[in-house]
Design goal:
The structure holds three protein chains of three kinds. Chain B is α/β, with parallel strands linked by helices. Chain B has twelve helices and 20 strands. In chain B, strand 4 and strand 5 form a beta hairpin. In chain B, 56% of the residues are buried. The C terminus of chain B is likely disordered. By secondary structure, chain C is an alpha+beta fold. Chain C is globular, with a radius of gyration of 12 Å. The chains are: A alpha/beta, B alpha/beta, C alpha+beta. Chains A and B meet through helix 7, strand 12, strand 14, strand 15 and helix 10 of A and strand 4, helix 10, strand 20 and helix 12 of B.
Chain lengths: 390, 465, 90
């Protein structure tokens, strides 16, 4: 506890609330910019959404727009980080999006063209070529697009690596340390955070608390419409190689109809180093209910078998779930809260947090230090009209 | 939809099913084994005699059925089963009794992964359940009362039991004489096993443990060490003996994954997650009851009385007339719990065992993770929680999903961290309780009782993950 | 072979089984302790827990895989094979 005692006297420039991938990336960039940083988390590093992520870094699933722009900056930065930081592996796995119906193929092709116009490497691939890339793929391929820029990493490992470097640059990390209050001065600016271990003065608080972001904002006296969206992933037994890259069903591109009660599913199948295959993904509003809905797992299984019929006899060893922090307009919330000077949100990344973290960190750094922002910050600002509290 | 589903047909499950059925409940008795009885009431599989308790007009028996998931719903529970061949089925019941028992707790040592090294329960299953001798020269090691019946069964079946090594010491019973004196039956049982072992000239060595196994493709010898009171192996007095089979058992671990999946509260401070209940065996989840070893390891007699109590509670809660004798059963349970607490104290695993590990000793057998990987995660990667250790070193992520290595990984991590971990269930939660094929999972019928949420999330296309 | 005994094979070799016997017990009775080699280090493994908890005793039976040898009753004519990591994964 001695480090926080030191800070009680001196304070820090920035408190980052959240030691997940976004908080870790922010801490690393802010420390590199010469600021004194303390990262606080009520749990362990990556114990929130980060620890439930598969570690996908994607451009393939993004339509041209602000999120794609942020993703492109972010993936570029991930490639740099992969070279700079030891002890985490970046896999340039690539992604294959497969359409199994003509309408899905048409929608996929149209979207890929728009993505190419925005600078994404979206390579149309014939059905024959798709099946030579993925020999176990269903014969019912109506169209496919390959995205060589999609990557993968191990999220907790990456967050830990970023925090290690931040600490080497002078940042402090306090896990198992919840923030219990955010103090504001007479001008409404944040001036300190309080924890069970003491008070920490800070002029800037970065809210990178993911699913708990609304609670952090509430400590500062403002609402923030970040809510959890639960998702499941199935994990199979270790297998000989059957899936070579990440393979997605393009069905979601055309199909925007929702299932019962807000349940939406997409099909993602990929193999891991350990030989297991991961099958996702679902999203539904279920608060923070940690239980598993077997009928949703059944849908994921059905979809996986449709894409890879040979998987039917493969056994599922486990399932895990995560809660994605989402905002009503499905864009991250990045920027200073105009109602609380000094409170900078860096949250609401939904299922794209791993990929978008370094880009978010660069933008936060630019906003805090007054540099030219690396991307247009306006679509992400906390007071945008489309971000109405639910 | 049946009234009560009982999962597990060992002593607790049989008692619960029988009691509920006698009160008029329709019962589905689900058990993964080929025959009822669980681990305790083991019949010779090649000539099984029927168990009368499993047969009743109101009991539907589902043998050979593994439960891979359970879900609690306002109207009852959904139980997802599959046969050994993979055929799936979903049962619905108004209430659920979990009686899934326990399995051997082991402590690793160099060479424990060699063929020929078994758990004590594994030796028991082979000798008594299959009539097969696992070896001709056997050492049985560990701690706890289970070592004696295993050694006795081996000796009776014709194996040369070279030694029984118990890491604990009978002097530890001195603190519990009052409790012991009220359980004369247990003393008689003990006397019987000691007589069998004496007749076969099997030495029992207290404060001894197998600290190493050696062999090329299978175990050929073990090294037995004397232990200090805290189980630290002493450097002098080591003995290497030739063996072709070893049995290892340090008590039992509750099979609590279904209760964890349902969100049942756990017994605070337990060494491995155990399900908390009230005196009527109700868990914290409405409609879910637990009985037997999963509420805390305590033996077959305790399991039987808890099963009766659970059956009585579920019958009463469903509106049937429960049997008489509940007050007496609660008293019996209280007495048996006191004895179980004494057993826990006498045979408690002491910390010095980690001294017989080397860096290369396997902790997770499935993923072949050595002790050094856990130490590295704590020392060099500054990881402080069990879940991150699991994800980083892969202990608990293999086929057995942490059953064998869970308690050991936690103990090694906590010793290295110098403090307890907070996420004690990280290696025990298994929402998929046993492996199930994608095909069987895909065939699960839709759940019309699942809680729904209003509306969709807009018309924007969703991201892939 | 007595009346109730029957034959099956393990990796092509003939083995005797009895009704009610598990694959693992029958193999053990025949002196076969090693059922597979591990994926990472190729170490031998066989029966360990005997009750279906540890998943060490995995074999293939008549093309089905993975099968726990300690739980699975053996039947006349069964073709039991050892799993090879590069083909069966584990």
């Amino acid at each position: 506890m001695s480090r926080i005692m030191d800070h009680i006297n001196r304070g820090v420039d920035v408190v980052v609330i959240g030691a997940g991938i976004v908080g870790a990336a922010c801490a690393d960039e802010l420390a590199a910019a010469g600021l004194s940083v303390a990262v606080l988390d009520k749990g362990a590093v990556g114990s929130g959404t980060t620890g439930s992520g598969e570690g996908n870094l994607l451009v393939s699933d993004k339509d041209p727009g602000p999120e794609l722009a942020l993703a492109q900056v972010s993936l570029r930065r991930w490639r740099e980080l992969g070279a700079e930081l030891p002890s985490f592996a970046l896999e340039a796995k690539g992604g294959l999006v497969v359409a199994t119906s003509d309408s899905a193929a048409a929608a996929l092709s149209e979207r890929a063209a728009r993505q190419r116009a925005a600078g994404v490497d979206a390579v149309p691939v014939s059905a024959t070529r798709a099946r030579s890339l993925e020999p176990y793929l269903t014969p019912d391929v109506a169209g496919a697009v390959h995205y060589p820029e999609d990557m993968q990493l191990q999220p907790v490992q990456a967050a830990a690596a970023l925090l290690r470097r931040a600490r080497a640059r002078g940042a402090t990390l306090l896990t198992e340390t919840p923030v219990t209050a955010i103090d504001r001065g007479p001008d409404g600016r944040v001036c300190a955070v309080r924890t069970p271990a003491g008070r920490l003065d800070a002029g800037i608080v970065v809210n990178a608390a993911g699913v708990a972001s609304a609670g952090v904002a509430a400590l500062a006296g403002v609402p923030l419409p970040i809510a959890p969206r639960r998702g499941y992933v199935l994990v199979t037994e270790p297998l000989p190689p059957m899936v070579n890259s990440k393979v997605y069903d393009a069905g979601y591109v055309a199909d925007v109809a929702t299932d019962d009660g807000g349940l939406q599913t997409s099909t993602v199948v990929e193999a891991t180093d350990g030989g297991t295959i991961l099958i996702g993904a679902s999203r539904e509003r279920a608060g923070l209910d940690p239980t598993f809905r077997v009928d949703v797992l059944a849908i994921l299984a059905r979809q996986a078998i449709r894409l890879f019929p040979a998987l039917a006899g493969v056994h599922v060893l486990r399932a895990y779930r995560g809660f994605r922090p989402y905002s009503p307009d499905h864009l991250p919330v990045i920027g200073e809260d105009p109602r609380v000077p000094g409170l900078v949100h860096a949250t609401g990344h939904e299922g794209a947090g791993i990929g978008l973290a370094p880009g978010t960190a660069l933008l936060v750094r630019d906003l805090v230090t007054g540099r030219d922002p690396v991307v247009d910050p306006r679509p992400f600002r906390p007071d945008r009209p489309s971000l109405v509290a639910a | 939809m049946t009234d009560v589903a009982v999962i597990g047909a060992g002593p607790a499950g049989l008692a619960a099913a029988r009691t509920a059925a006698h009160a008029g409940c329709r019962v589905a008795l689900v058990d993964a084994g080929a025959h009822p009885g669980g681990q305790y009431l083991r019949r010779l599989a090649t000539a099984p005699t029927p168990l009368p308790d499993a047969v009743h007009p109101l009991i539907d028996n589902f043998q050979g059925a593994s439960v891979w998931a359970v879900e609690a719903r306002p109207g009852g529970v959904r139980i997802h089963l599959r046969s050994a061949a993979g055929e799936g089925r979903t049962l619905r019941a108004r209430a659920l009794v979990l009686a899934t028992g326990a399995y051997d707790r082991t402590l690793p040592f160099p060479g424990w992964d060699l063929p020929g090294v078994f758990t004590a329960g594994g030796l028991q299953a082979l000798v008594k359940g299959q009539g097969v001798l696992p070896g001709r020269r056997v050492v049985v090691a560990g701690s706890g009362p289970f070592l004696l019946p295993v050694a006795a069964a081996l000796a009776t079946a014709g194996a040369r039991v070279v030694a029984v090594c118990d890491a604990s010491h009978p002097a530890r019973w001195a603190r519990h004489l009052a409790t012991v004196s009220r359980h004369a039956g247990k003393l008689a049982e003990l006397g019987h096993y000691l007589r069998v072992l004496r007749r076969h000239r099997v030495p029992i060595r207290f404060r001894h443990a197998v600290v190493r196994a050696d062999g090329d493709q299978a175990v050929g010898s073990v090294t037995i060490a004397r232990l200090a009171g805290d189980w630290t192996p002493l450097p002098t007095g080591r003995q290497t003996v030739a063996v072709d089979a070893v049995g290892v058992g340090f008590g039992f671990v509750p099979s609590a994954e279904l209760a964890l999946a349902l969100g049942c509260d756990l017994v605070p401070g337990a060494a491995a997650p155990a399900v908390h209940t009230d005196t009527g065996m109700r868990t914290s989840v409405a409609g879910v009851y637990a009985a037997g070893e999963i509420t805390g390891v305590g033996g077959a007699a305790l399991a039987d009385v808890e099963g009766r109590l659970a059956g009585a509670s579920v019958a009463a809660d469903l509106g049937f007339t429960p049997p008489a004798g509940t007050a007496r059963d609660r008293r019996r349970r209280a007495r048996a719990l006191r004895f179980a607490a004494a057993l826990d104290e006498v045979y408690a695993i002491q910390p010095g065992w980690q001294q017989w590990l080397t860096g290369e000793t396997l902790v997770c057998r499935c993923e072949e993770v050595p002790v050094s990987a856990i130490h590295h995660a704590v020392d060099d990667l500054a990881i402080t929680d069990l879940r991150s250790i699991k994800l980083t070193v892969r202990a608990g992520m293999g086929m057995c999903q942490g059953r064998v290595c869970g308690p050991t990984t936690r103990a090694i991590a906590e010793a290295r961290l110098g403090h307890p971990v907070t996420d004690v269930t990280a290696l025990s939660t298994r929402p998929i309780a046993v492996p199930v094929s994608l095909r069987t999972l895909a065939d699960v019928p839709p759940d019309d009782t699942a809680p729904t949420r209003p509306g969709g999330c807009g018309t924007r296309p969703e991201p892939a993950t | 072979m007595s009346d109730s005994e029957f034959g099956f094979t393990f990796d092509g070799e003939p083995v005797t089984g009895r009704p009610g016997a598990t694959v693992g017990a029958a193999l053990l009775a025949a002196g076969i302790r090693t059922l597979r080699a591990t994926r990472r280090h190729g170490r031998p493994r066989g029966l360990f827990c005997g009750i279906g908890v540890c998943f060490d005793c995995l074999v293939s039976v008549n093309g089905e895989t993975p099968v726990r040898a300690c739980l699975t009753p053996v039947a006349p004519g069964d073709t039991v094979t050892s799993r090879r990591p590069e083909v069966d994964g584990r």
